[in-house]
Design the sequence.
């Protein structure tokens, strides 16, 4: 290659790297492609282009690029490994595993490949094989962070929660400066009811994605009885409904909770002792500020501190007469079977509507759908005897105003872990919250039916992976027993 061409390609490479470092990925991709026009088989450029495409979410193009790179340089394990990562994105477990074995054939002791294989096995459900891979890494390096976390996740998936926590604790002790490790430990301990110190570990999340709140100083837990505290919302609507009440516990002269605009009317109508402001309005003046999910750590929250004032949400009393008339008589059960993505969530929050069939045939029971948005299409597809309330619920800018009034007039709610479950429980209604098998979510307990967050909520864990129908059969039996005048927990 002529020296002047080589010099030009070196300059282009540096320019592409500079654009990528600055986050100008489109520009970097264009430059990488320009280099490949002159050097179609240049593997480092193919690798860089594929990596940039993958970072930009152009997965199919990244896969095609890495396949070319592997074809040009099959002896390089890093190429097989990153191609496997792309294939794992598609959940193409078999081919991804073949790629990792190709990488191991060329570098049998490569730690990165062993870790990738372990992660693949975890995601594909082969937990024991995953843990064997992580153990191989730990035999070489007992402090390897990814292997310790992988072992913890494996034990977590197997329901060995205390052993999993010990793995996370070891990782946290060895990697004190890594917020992701501290945060994983916090979520595990919280789901086991180990609240002491866990909320402090939970604060590590603020180092992972630090919000820009402006110049108001952050409250560190000092006395603020003569100051105004601004509580900034964090998370989704479920978090607002679950944690918003903690703002009333802050010993400040004034507390302002700046909540999602869609629920500001609901919260204001509940007559909290704090001022409720919409996040669509200008930011209120305050002396100090904090995040909603930092309140448990600042208040040194523990289970005996809950629930405080209960119920702490209130439906609009002017709507109740309408909904009592609309819903009529009988045992009226509201159901919701799907939730969206959740901040720091664990496991699935989707139950197929077909799983509710055991409830549909029970005498004197009427089912009402409280589901909004995604998931409602199943009502039309299945044709189950479920009354759809969606056209009458919350069609304006405000969320849950109609839903809160409707729930207040129901007998109970059976729901997946979503905002509907939180809303109903915060209104003081009986709620049966359906949770996936294993993989306890940090806000709930790993076992047992009670939760300190809501005295009227019962937690029901799916008995086997994906066996939602089996869970609903059990709930149907409980309903029948209760309607017969008996306590289902005292039946032999």
Sequence:
């Amino acid at each position: 290659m002529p020296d002047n061409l080589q010099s030009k390609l070196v300059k282009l490479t540096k320019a592409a790297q500079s654009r990528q470092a600055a986050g100008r990925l489109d520009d970097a991709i264009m430059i990488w492609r320009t280099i490949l026009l002159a050097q179609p088989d240049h593997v480092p450029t193919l690798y860089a282009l594929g990596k940039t495409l993958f970072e930009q979410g152009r997965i199919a193009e990244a896969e095609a690029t890495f396949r070319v790179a592997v074809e040009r340089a099959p002896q390089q394990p890093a190429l097989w490994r990153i191609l496997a990562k792309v294939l794992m994105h598609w959940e193409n477990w078999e081919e991804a595993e073949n790629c990792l074995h190709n990488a191991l054939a060329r570098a049998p002791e490569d730690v990165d490949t062993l870790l990738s294989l372990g992660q693949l096995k975890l995601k594909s459900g082969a937990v024991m094989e995953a843990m064997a891979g992580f153990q191989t890494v730990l035999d070489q390096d007992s402090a390897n962070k990814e292997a310790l976390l992988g072992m913890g996740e494996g034990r977590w998936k197997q329901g060995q929660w205390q052993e999993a926590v010990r793995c996370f604790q070891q990782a946290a002790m060895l990697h004190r400066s890594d917020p992701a490790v501290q945060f994983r430990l916090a979520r595990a301990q919280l789901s086991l009811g180990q609240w002491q110190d866990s909320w402090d570990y939970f604060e590590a999340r603020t180092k992972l994605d630090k919000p820009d709140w402006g110049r108001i100083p952050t409250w560190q837990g000092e006395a603020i009885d003569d100051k105004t505290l601004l509580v900034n919302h964090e998370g989704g609507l479920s978090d607002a409904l679950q944690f918003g009440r903690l703002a009333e516990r802050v010993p400040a002269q004034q507390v302002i909770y700046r909540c999602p605009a869609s629920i500001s009317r609901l919260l204001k109508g509940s007559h909290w002792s704090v001022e409720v402001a919409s996040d669509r309005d200008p930011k209120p003046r305050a002396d100090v500020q904090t995040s909603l999910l930092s309140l448990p750590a600042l208040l040194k929250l523990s289970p005996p501190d809950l629930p405080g004032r209960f119920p702490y949400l209130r439906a609009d009393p002017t709507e109740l007469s309408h909904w009592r008339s609309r819903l009529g008589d009988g045992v009226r059960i509201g159901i919701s079977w799907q939730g969206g993505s959740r901040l720091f969530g664990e496991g699935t929050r989707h139950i197929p509507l077909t799983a509710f069939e055991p409830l549909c045939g029970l005498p004197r029971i009427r089912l009402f759908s409280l589901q909004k948005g995604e998931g409602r299409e199943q009502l039309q597809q299945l044709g189950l005897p479920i009354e759809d309330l969606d056209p009458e619920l919350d069609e304006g800018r405000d969320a849950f105003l109609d839903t809160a009034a409707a729930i207040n007039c129901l007998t109970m709610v059976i729901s997946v872990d979503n905002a509907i479950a939180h809303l109903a429980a915060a209104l003081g209604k009986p709620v049966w919250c359906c949770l996936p098998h294993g993989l306890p979510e940090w806000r709930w307990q790993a076992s047992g039916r009670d939760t300190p967050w809501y005295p009227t909520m019962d937690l029901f864990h799916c008995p086997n992976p994906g066996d939602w129908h089996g869970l609903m059969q059990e709930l149907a039996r409980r309903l029948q027993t209760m309607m017969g005048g008996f306590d289902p927990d005292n039946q032999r």
